[in-house]
Amino acid sequence: IPENDCGTGTTSEILTVTVNNTPEQATTPSGNQDLCINPENTEYSTSATNAESYTWEITPTEAGTITGTTETATVDWNDTFTGEASISVIPENDCGTGTTSEILTVTIHAAPISDFTYEVSNFIVTLTNNSQNASSYLWDFGDSNTSIEFEPVHTYTENGEYTIYLNAQNEYCDVNVSSNTLTIEVTNINSDINKNIKIYPTVSFGVLNIDNAKDQTITITNTIGKIILKQRINSNNEIIDISSKSGGIYFISILNSNKTYKIIIQ
């Protein structure tokens, strides 16, 4: 209001002055925290009272680059990076900067690698799982049987060529598949060509006749490879009684012979 000895003048127009505060702390960034290696670009978001812009940060720098100055930013991930990355954000306005947000930890998971080896003994296949970065497994034995065990033991009961597939996966990445092909020879009860050994009957209640096998050693195993009998044959007309064993499929192998015989106990 202007004044002199004659009085006061007209009051000026009002000037409004706004006093701003610096931004409050930004909220912890939100977005996907678990990704598979070489993911698509990923968006993360935050908010802060009184903020006009944001500075986004990601460490380590080899994880990728983060771009954006608003409440939303985008990460372009390095296609070879695996491990943990930290994302944080600083709110800003004309008065200065606010407190940096809490860190969001993002894990980039390695892709599963399926791999296995196998051993065959008496038509029982023992699998060794050499897979990496996997948490679950599905085996396909090529004979309509499957398993989700880490290292299963599988018994084939028919002649043929079989391809075993191992599907290895984790929670965050696609399935990876490996395979191996093997040939199985399941010999039913018949003549041993080299030694003229005969084991019969094929199906019985557990009493077996073994002909022409004097001085040979036989081993009888069940379908999981457990030995239930190992015995030397003392005559060319030997009778073996395993009727006390549970019904099912068993295998008879003869020392120094490449033959294995399948029998069924009822």
Explain briefly what this protein structure is.
By secondary structure, the protein is mostly beta strands. The chain is built from no helices and 26 strands.
Q: Biggest β-sheet, characterized?
A: 6 strands, mixed
Distance between the termini: 116 Å
Gyration radius, in Å: 38 Å
**Secondary-structure element order, N to C:** EEEEEEEEEEEEEEEEEEEEEEEEEE
Question: What is the SS-derived class?
Answer: mainly beta
Strand content: over 45%
Number of extended strands = 26
Question: What proportion of the residues is helical, as a percent range?
Answer: under 10%
Q: Helix tally?
A: 0
Mean pLDDT: 90
Residue windows where pLDDT falls under 50 for at least 5 positions: 189-194
Shape: rod-shaped
What features would you describe in this structure?
It contains no helices and 26 strands. The chain has strands spanning 3-4, 7-8, 34-36, 42-45, 53-59, 64-67, 72-77, 83-93, 96-97, 104-109, 116-121, 124-129, 136-140, 146-147, 153-155, 160-169, 176-184, 187-188, 198-200, 203-204, 207-211, 217-221, 227-232, 237-241, 248-254, 260-265. Strands 18, 20, 22, 23, 25 and 26 form a six-stranded mixed sheet that branches. Strands 3, 5, 8, 9 and 10 form a five-stranded mixed sheet that branches. A four-stranded antiparallel sheet has the order 14-13-16-17, with no helix packed on it. It starts with a strand and ends with a strand.
